[in-house]
Amino acid sequence: MIEGQEDVTWDDWVAIAEACERSGIGSLFRSDHYLSVEDRRERGSLDAWASLAALATITEKLRLGTMVSPATFRHPSVFAKLAATVDQISGGRVSPGLGAGWWDREHEAYGFDLPELGPRMTAFEEQLEIATRSWEDDAFSFSGEHFSVVDLDARPKPVQRPMPLVIGGSGGPRSLRIAARFASEYNTTQGTPAELADLRRRLDAACAKRDRDPASLPLSLMTTWIVAETREGVVDYASRLSAWQGKGDDGERFLAEVPDHWIVGTVEGAVEQLHALHGSGVTRVMAQHLLHRDTRAIELIGREVAPLIERF
Q1: How many folded domains does the chain comprise?
Q2: What is the CATH number of the domain that holds 302?
């Protein structure tokens, strides 16, 4: 998972995608932000969906998705059309992700509305209904508090039927209820195994209220990833990441202060952490790789980590 708003150029995206395919990584997710979440205004961001469309033309097997698109950026019909377009271009390899939106500074800078959470979640639910019904066969009309469509039969339809949809959230009751209704996968960020086990239980309960089999709604986690083949490599990565964040280049100090929920260590240690997350109900992990120009670290995931977790 790459934070595309932190100055990831098109050449970077090509190198990242090539590293993924070369090493056997199955999916590449990118954030959908227009402004650096590190608040580094000198860092640029290519549009998420335009870049995914371009990546679809130069890859063969790699699944591509957003982690996650803010619903506040686009009308739901636009989001649905973009996802269907990339699915067509890629031959059925897109995994669209959608969340309610949160980064207030980019909304202000780019002129996007960011309502209070209650109205934002109401609009989000309407957006999900329009998007998911746009991917289905029949024409439909919808009139809500925030959005409406009339006799809409959006074509072409996606290659994937049904279209997978990742909904991102922090595990609040309304978020889980919405996910139980619309999501193919529920994604949250930066949690410990105990926190994820509790979230899995609450997600199961939300599914039960809709008479949905909880097994049909996987739980995934996006979390920061600092993994290398050796301890020295981990410290080196941490040193470079610390410098990238403007905190100096003391890798040991940086590692001493990282949150418990980050995946940090050698391959063997990372696999142990992944095993614990799997035991808590997490189906997959999106490894947030912040040093995006370090393609060797990307290849390590496919070459060394993935074969070890296939036994889970």
Answers
A1: 1
A2: 3.20.20.30
